[in-house]
Amino acid sequence: MLRSTSSTQAVITTSVGEAEFYAQIRACIEGVFCRNLLDFYGHTVQIVLENDASASRGIMARLGASKRTKHIRPKLFW
User: Is the pLDDT of residue 4 over 70?
Assistant: First the structure.
């Protein structure tokens, strides 16, 4: 069975790159949840997150906040 869902973004962003970053974080969270749920039931899976947005990839590659990303919520830099 194949199922899809959609949701709206709960955070107001100041740039497209920031919106892409929040979406990528949300995808990571949901992927880890699904992997842990399947692991609980005895299935081993590997989650691969692919992204074509260069702005969010740049933010994800940084270690901590910088001058350009100081307005992003610090708890998302995990």
Answer: yes
